Amino acid sequence: MKRRDFIVKSAGASVVAGALYGLGSSKNLYGYPANASKYDMIALMGGEPEAMFDLGIQQLGGMQTFVAPGQRVLIKPDIGWNATPELATNTNPMLVKRIVEHCFKAGAKDVYVFDHTYDDWLDCYKNSGIEKAVKDSGGKMVPANTENYYQPIEIPGGIKLKQAMVHQLLFETDVFINVPVLKNHNATRVSGCLTNMMGMVWDRDYWYANDLNQCIADYALYQKKPNLNVLDCYNVMVKNGPRGMSKDDLVLMKSQLISTDWVAVDAAGSKMLGVDTNKVGYISLCHDMGVGNKNLDTLEINRIKL
User: Fold this and answer.
1) What is the DSSP letter of 35?
2) Which residue, 39, 49, 198, 289, has fewest beta-carbon neighbours within 10 Å?
3) How many alpha carbons fall within 13 Å on the CB side of residue 23?
4) Any idea what the Cα angle at residue 234 is, between residues 38 and 259, rounded to 5°?
5) What does each C-alpha distance from 73 to 17, 179, 236 come to in angstroms?
6) What is the DSSP-derived secondary structure letter of residue 195?
7) β-strand 163-167 against 150-154: which pairing, if any?
8) Contact at 8 Å (CB) between 135 and 141?
9) CATH assignment of the domain containing 210
10) What CA–CA distance (Å, rounded) separates 103 from 300?
11) SS3 label, residue 257
12) Where are the beta strands (DSSP E) in 51-128?
C-alpha cells in the first residue's frame, strides 16, 4: 500500500499526519469525519489525551457510531494499582473523563466505570484520579471487590479457560469500551487491551496458574467483546510492569491507539514497547484463533500527529 502524508484542519489548528509508529498504511482525511468502516485503527501522537481522543473518535465517525441515545455504557480502564497519575500505572484519568463525556454527548443514559483492582479498591479508585474524573463528568464508579458482583460464563472453544466469573455490568450494559494503559508486563511482556480483561473477572489467579497467555486468548473468544478499544500510550511504562517502581520506568510517548480490533491494538502497542509481536504469546494465540489481526501491514491505519 502506498503511504501518504497529509494535513488535516482540526479545531483551528494544522495537524500533520503521516508515517507514525511504522505501522501499516495511511489515508487522507480531507478534513472531515471518516466513515466508521474506513479505518481499522487510528494512531495519534503529540497531543494531550483529551485532544487525541477528540480527533481520533471523530475519524471513526464520532462516538455516536458506537453509542446510541438511551444506551448504558461500561468503560473498563486499568485502575489496578494504588498509584497517582504521574506514575502511569493506571489509565490516564483525563482520557477516561473525556470518553465519559463523549458517551453522554452521544446520548448515553448511564456510564459506569470499574476495575477489579489488585490493591485496595477504594485507594485505587481515589488515588488514580479516575474516581474524581468519572464523577466530575457524570459517570458512576462501581465496586468490583467481592465475588457477589460476578456471574458465571462458559467459553466455548477455550483450551485452558473454559469458564469464568465476569462482572455483572458486562451483561447489564449495551456498550463496552476498553481503555487500558500500555505497559511492560513481567509475565506477558505487553500489557494492553487483552490483558485488561483480567480486571473483568473474579478468578484471575487461575489464569496465572494455568498458562496466562492461553487464558487471555481463551477469554477473548467470549462473545461479548469490547465495542471499542482505546489504548492510552501517553506516558508508557517500559520496564518493571505492570506495577512499576518509579518515574524512571516511564517514557513520555504522547500517543493513543483506537480500534475495534483489540489484537491489532496490542500488536501496535508491542512495537511501541520495542517487543517483537510474534514473541508475545497471547497476541499470536489470539491471531491464530481468529480473534483479531496482528498483521499491521494489512490494515488501514490512519496516523495523525497533533
Assistant:
1) P
2) 289
3) 32
4) 20
5) 31, 13, 27
6) G
7) antiparallel
8) yes
9) 3.40.50.11440
10) 25
11) strand
12) 72-77, 110-113
Distance CA 59, CA 302 (A): 9
Q: Is residue 183 scored above 70 in pLDDT? A: yes
d(CA 282, CA 194): 8
Q: 26 in a domain, yes or no?
A: no
Residue 65, C-alpha cell as written in the block: 457510531
Are the beta carbons of 188 and 280 closer than 8 angstroms?
Answer: yes
Global pTM value = 0.89
Task: Report which of 164, 208, 198 is spatially closest to residue 81, judged by C-alpha positions.
Answer: 198
- Joined together, the cell numbers standing for residue 33 give 469525519
Band the pLDDT of 102: cuts 50, 70, 90. very high
Q: Does residue 38 fall inside a structural domain?
A: no
State the Cα–Cα distance between residues 278 and 296, nearest whole angstrom: 12
173 within a domain of the structure (yes/no): yes
Contact between 253 and 185 under an 8 Å Cβ cutoff? The reply is: no
Residue 13, domain member (yes or no): no
- How far apart are alpha carbons 22 and 43 in whole angstroms? 10
pLDDT band at 17 (very low <50, low <70, confident <90, very high): very low
The x, y and z cell numbers of residue 117, run together, are 483492582
Read off φ and ψ for residue 26, nearest 5 degrees. Answer: -125, 160
The bridge status of strand 175-179 relative to strand 72-77 is parallel
What's the 3-state SS for 153-172? EECCCCCCCCEEEEECHHHH
Q: What is the pLDDT of residues 262-274, one digit of tens each?
A: 999 999 999 999 9
Closest CA to 41 of 272, 288, 275: 272
45, 145 in Cβ contact below 8 A?
A: no
Per-residue buried b or exposed e for 124-139, using 16+ beta carbons within 10 Å of the residue's own CB: bbebbbbbebbeebeb
Cα distance between residue 139 and residue 8, in whole Å = 32
| Number of structural domains in the chain | 1
**Domain boundaries, position 96:** 67-296
